[in-house]
Amino acid sequence: xxxxxxxxxxxxxxxxxxxxxxxxxxxxxxxxxxxxxxxxxxxxxxxxxxxxxxxxxxxxxxxxxxxxxxxxxxxxxxxxxxxxxxxxxxxxxxxxxxxxxxxxxx
Length: 106
Description:
It is built from six helices and no strands. The protein has helices at residues 6-11, 19-31, 38-42, 50-63, 69-73, 81-94.
């Protein structure tokens, strides 16, 4: 991946960005291993759309950066089993104790 794409991608997911755009950008940032995007992605953990919040948690887990732990651990499970599972997986992945994607078995 091209690291020059990271900042424009982060800029594309500002407040009010459509969910579809956020999901695509999260996927791209995860593929780029864009640890610099952790703060921007972490902000989406509180997004009203559960789909976007789950994708943010999963992306942070894919990045596997300990820098994401404060945002992940400060986030409640929101009463949704899917979000709770993604959040727990991301926390484990960022702590280095789980490398499988959420929902996959080792």
